[in-house]
Design a protein that fits this description.
Helix content is about 50%, strand content about 25%. The longest helix is centred in the last third of the chain and has 51 residues, at about 110-160. The chain is α+β, with helices and mostly antiparallel strands. It comes from Marinomonas pollencensis.
Length: about 170
């Protein structure tokens, strides 16, 4: 089963303290590192400083060390500094005696999908903001129209009340 997952997923193994033990070629290709550049390095090298210093990051590792898997979408950083999005599960691994001894991460690169989703969100936000501005402009135009109409009605009313001789 692991062989099948290795073929189709980006796979990386960590010690319980987050040090990289091994990674397959799919992972290395996705992240832009060679194996020698990551073995023995902490998992933080794949995270932004903000992420790796966050309480959520520490809590995730505490959860893993308690034997519970973590699965979600993760934003990580490639070697070249660009973002990569991974749909991943971090899976605690137990030995034959039931002792937790490492964590294996199975991941799929979903960067293109996330970029499309984020672009859709940005486009939707732009459309919403534009509609708010359009609505506001329309209300201002209506207010101005009503004010001018009142002025015109007032003027027309005064004009109609004047004797016919003075209108010439």
């Amino acid at each position: 089963m692991i062989t099948v997952l290795n073929r189709s997923n980006a796979v990386i193994e960590f010690s319980l303290d987050g040090m990289t033990l091994n990674a397959n070629d799919n992972f290395l290709h996705a992240i832009g590192y060679s194996k020698s550049q990551i073995i023995g390095k902490h998992q933080r090298i794949f995270c932004s400083d903000e992420e790796s210093n966050s309480a959520a990051y520490r809590e995730s590792w505490d959860t893993l060390r308690s034997g519970v898997y973590v699965s979600e979408r993760f934003k990580r950083v490639r070697r070249d500094g660009s973002d990569i999005w991974l749909e991943a599960s971090y899976n605690p691994v137990f030995d034959d005696t039931g002792e937790l001894y490492k964590v294996i991460k199975f991941a799929t690169n979903i960067t293109e999908q996330m970029n499309r989703e984020l672009a859709t969100v940005e486009t939707s936000k732009f459309a919403y903001d534009t509609s708010l501005k359009t609505d506001s402009a329309a209300k201002e135009a209506l207010k101005s129209f009503k004010q001018r109409r009142r002025q015109w009605v007032s003027y027309r009313s005064k004009w109609l009340k004047q004797p016919l001789a003075s209108q010439n």
